[in-house]
Recover the amino acids of this structure.
């Protein structure tokens, strides 16, 4: 299990880096769109469509990372008032929901890819199925990561640390201006 | 009683929405209430690309869609979408009501859809915030918003103007602030999107007279008895007459509103614009079948 | 029955702590299965609901905010604000609000703002003897100013959800006075509470130093003009302006201040990816959820119900405000705008309310919801920075809620506060 977990940790890091590159790429695409319209006086028809596709990728990759790092926002007031034992059980239910939904993303994502594979995305000329690839890949990672959480919790590892502190960037010290 | 669910991106009261409701009334009457139609207007069920997929998989039964989103799915739909392919609205109606229209409707079947009928969407023309456009030379260098489609981009560029693909939702602001000089659409959309508040010059060049299409999910169609299939098909055909009546009235009403608001309407000699389309046709009529279809459309009176 | 499944599954899962995104997704899935429809549509809506160009404003503004914090733009603005109002009673509370107002003019996200200004101010305030609850509440409420002052990603989402016919430039302009009004009302409240609690003042640093701090913060503050001017004059669209904010933040911190190191850049990018993925996954799942609401005709039922109660626009606006405040306690702002606008906007325009005016009402109302548990993103962030629980913050937030509600009432019933400024630009 530990070795699997270490491997998944690398997958998670990789997904986060890819997603970060996606965000930078999307910035570049939209900046190029503004630049070419305003400076070159010609608007490429592919920038918007491809920027959206890149966004789709980094959201689903980032969302999967969120499952592993446990930063998805939830309402856990009830968990604080309930006795300790039930907390683990409820968390497991939540992970099961995410796991099942992830499987759904893979299964129906593939169906959507197949359904749209023979159509063409205007402006890019790619098969329409490309639109649904991020959904499918994100689903694979979400189900993997939520399964890992359930197994680790079952093995006694604390995977339910408080989530909201993680989302806040640590602040550099106040500089004397 | 079975409810057939129908999607439309247009708002309630729009001719296509009303025509499908009318069709529903006919179906209800002719099946003695066994079938009825409920229209989900205003894109409640998603944009056209999405509702097409929902229709293909049988999530919804009926769908009124523009031709554009089908261009990448059903190649035959590319031909009537070409700029300046129809000379007038009357000619378009004549073509789509005849054997050519039937041939295109049949082509949907290979994609999990049953083509029922063609509706009108009027004629799209250019409008802008800058000046009256009365000749092809006036178009030179102007920035026009187009939908994210290569045909539109190529058409506008072939006319000597600059195409700016942009989401529809950003057009009003973009016209107002001068990100673009103009856009293009039919009278009702020009009016209902309020673009006439900022763009005061409309040029009747009618570069696109594209019909819209009413399709049914193949899955839903197969559930109907042969008699009911005939009833649905006939009700769809009957709704076209109603649709055109409503459309013509709507177009006139919108044009009146717009002209009353001070929009200057100008005519333009279409022939030089049609001639400029040669490279566009060469690019998009990629197979002999499509070339033949285009030739037959142009040869129809 | 279907409606009960949809809302029942959602509520049940929410109370056992399932992330909101999956509550929405699972509830949609269960309902679709019950209806006997292909579940495929749930995933299609999820995918298309987030694949919208205008939604890009969210990642961009979050990213720009993270870069401005990492690269020291926010710190310089806070220092400048300190020199202006630090000498008032409870000075650091006032500094917090003024800094939030200035930063709000360049940031489009209240979360980024709470993290940025709160991260700098809350530790300082605690050190100088302010209660952590006071520091947190001032921060979280002042962060809402960013929603109203341009740029604002939520106004873009509102315009799109309203069918795209509402001018974003007008919405941006309309938010300015309400934003400043909120700032003023919070400053008064913070002053009264600070007096009551006996909080200290800071010495005035002198005009020379204040001037120097101003000069240093100019490159950051310049972004206010670039974004507002750029959108109004048509150099770029509102959605594109969010991307320009990222580019500009990079230019200032890398070339201007030379404070952005590679490591900071990587951190900011990763942080933005995390926040963005969290928010947009909820928006995608909400698209499935609202598809089902439309399919089940929930909006029509709501409008019918509203018509049965009253058709007086003043009452309708009051009812909608109460309804949105209630819904806003449970749901995040983005999904709420996406779900509510298509339902409420036709209703209010039917009664003659201007869509731009209603946009400002919606943003302010749902903004207050960002500071109400159980789902209060901004409050969570501020509490996390202040290291207190939401319940500790709740004990003393009431005067600040009061300030927000008063402004909401004024903005609702005096349309000119929103609509006068856009009319000047016409
Ligand atoms: Na702002
Ligand atoms: Na809330």
């Amino acid at each position: 299990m530990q070795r699997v977990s270490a491997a998944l940790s690398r997958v998670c890091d990789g997904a986060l880096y890819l997603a970060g590159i996606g965000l930078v790429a999307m910035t570049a695409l939209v900046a190029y769109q503004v630049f070419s319209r305003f400076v070159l006086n010609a608007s490429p028809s592919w920038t918007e469509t491809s920027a959206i596709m890149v966004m789709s990728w980094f959201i689903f990759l980032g969302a999967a990372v969120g499952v592993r790092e446990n930063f998805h926002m939830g309402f856990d007031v009830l968990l604080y008032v309930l006795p300790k034992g039930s907390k683990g059980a409820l968390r497991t239910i939540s992970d099961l929901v995410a796991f099942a939904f992830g499987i759904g993303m893979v299964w129906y994502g593939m169906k959507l890819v197949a359904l749209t594979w023979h159509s063409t995305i205007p402006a890019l000329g790619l098969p329409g199925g490309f639109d649904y690839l991020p959904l499918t890949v994100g689903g694979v990672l979400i189900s993997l990561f939520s399964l890992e959480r359930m197994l680790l919790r079952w093995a006694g590892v604390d995977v339910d640390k408080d989530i909201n502190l993680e989302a806040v960037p640590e602040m550099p010290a106040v500089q004397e201006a | 009683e079975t409810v057939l669910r129908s999607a439309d991106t247009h708002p309630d009261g729009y001719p296509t929405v009303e025509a499908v409701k009318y069709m529903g009334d006919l179906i209800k009457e002719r099946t003695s209430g066994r079938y009825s139609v409920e229209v989900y207007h205003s894109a409640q069920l998603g944009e056209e690309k999405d509702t097409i997929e929902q229709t293909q998989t049988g999530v919804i039964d009926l769908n009124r869609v523009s031709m554009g989103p089908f261009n990448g799915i059903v190649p035959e739909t590319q031909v009537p979408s070409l700029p300046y392919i129809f000379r007038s609205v009357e000619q378009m109606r004549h073509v789509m009501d005849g054997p050519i229209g039937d041939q295109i409707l049949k082509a949907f079947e290979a994609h999990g859809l049953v083509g029922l009928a063609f509706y009108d969407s009027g004629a799209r023309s250019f409008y802008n915030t800058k000046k009256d456009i009365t000749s092809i030379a006036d178009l030179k260098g102007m920035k026009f918003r187009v939908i994210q489609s290569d045909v539109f981009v190529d058409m506008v560029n072939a006319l000597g103007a600059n195409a700016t693909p942009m989401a529809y939702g950003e057009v009003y602001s973009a016209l107002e602030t001068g990100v673009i000089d103009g856009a293009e659409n039919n009278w009702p959309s020009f009016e209902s999107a309020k673009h006439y508040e900022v763009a005061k010059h409309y040029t009747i060049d009618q570069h696109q007279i594209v019909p819209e299409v009413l399709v049914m999910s193949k899955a839903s169609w197969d559930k109907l008895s042969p008699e009911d299939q005939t009833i649905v098909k006939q009700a769809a055909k009957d709704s076209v007459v109603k649709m055109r009546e409503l459309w013509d009235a709507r177009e006139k009403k919108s044009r009146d509103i717009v002209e009353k608001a001070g929009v200057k309407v100008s005519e333009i000699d279409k022939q030089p614009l049609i001639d400029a389309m040669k490279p566009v046709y060469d690019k998009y009529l990629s197979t002999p079948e499509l070339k033949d279809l285009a030739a037959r459309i142009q040869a129809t009176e | 029955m279907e409606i009960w499944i949809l809302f029942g599954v959602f509520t049940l899962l929410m109370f056992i702590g399932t992330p909101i995104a999956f509550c929405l997704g699972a509830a949609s899935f269960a309902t679709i299965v019950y209806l006997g429809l292909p579940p495929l549509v749930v995933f299609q809506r999820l995918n298309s609901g987030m694949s919208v160009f205008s939604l890009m404003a969210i990642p961009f503004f979050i990213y720009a905010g993270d870069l401005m914090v990492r690269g020291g733009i926010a710190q310089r603005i806070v220092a400048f604000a300190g020199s202006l109002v630090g000498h008032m009673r409870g000075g650091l509370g006032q500094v917090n609000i003024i800094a939030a107002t200035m930063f709000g003019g360049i940031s489009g996200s209240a979360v980024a703002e709470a993290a940025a200004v709160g991260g700098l101010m809350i530790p300082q305030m605690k050190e100088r003897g302010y209660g952590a609850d006071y520091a947190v509440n001032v921060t979280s409420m002042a962060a809402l100013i960013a929603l109203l002052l341009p740029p604002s990603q939520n106004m873009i989402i509102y315009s799109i959800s309203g069918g795209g016919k509402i001018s974003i430039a007008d919405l941006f302009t309309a938010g300015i006075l309400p934003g400043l009004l909120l700032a003023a009302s919070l400053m008064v409240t913070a002053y009264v509470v600070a007096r009551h609690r006996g909080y200290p003042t800071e010495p005035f640093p002198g005009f020379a130093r204040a001037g120097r701090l101003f000069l240093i913060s100019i490159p950051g503050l310049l972004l206010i003009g670039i974004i507002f001017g750029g959108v109004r004059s048509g150099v770029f669209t509102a959605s594109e302006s969010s991307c320009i904010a990222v580019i500009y933040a990079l230019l200032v911190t890398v070339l201007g201040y030379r404070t952005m190191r590679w490591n900071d850049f990587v951190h900011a990018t990763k942080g933005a990816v995390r926040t963005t993925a969290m928010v947009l996954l909820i928006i995608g799942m909400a698209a499935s959820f609202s598809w089902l609401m439309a399919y089940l005709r929930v909006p029509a039922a709501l409008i019918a119900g509203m018509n049965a109660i009253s058709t007086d626009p003043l009452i309708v606006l009051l009812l909608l405000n109460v309804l949105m405040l209630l819904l806003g306690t449970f749901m995040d702002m983005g999904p709420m705008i996406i779900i509510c606008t298509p339902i409420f906007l036709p209703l209010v325009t039917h009664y003659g309310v201007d869509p731009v005016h209603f946009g400002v009402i919606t943003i302010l109302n749902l903004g207050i919801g960002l500071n109400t548990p159980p789902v209060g993103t901004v409050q969570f962030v501020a509490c996390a920075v202040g290291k207190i629980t939401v319940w500790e913050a709740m004990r003393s937030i009431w005067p600040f809620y009061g300030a927000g509600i008063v402004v909401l009432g004024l903005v609702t019933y005096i349309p000119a506060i929103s609509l006068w400024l856009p009319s000047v630009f016409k």
Summary: Residues 24 and 37 of chain B are 5 Å apart (CA to CA). The first strand of chain B starts at residue 2 and ends at 7. Chain B has twelve helices and eleven strands. The interface with chain A takes residues 53, 56-57, 71-73, 143, 148-150, 153, 162-167, 179 of chain B (CB under 8 Å).
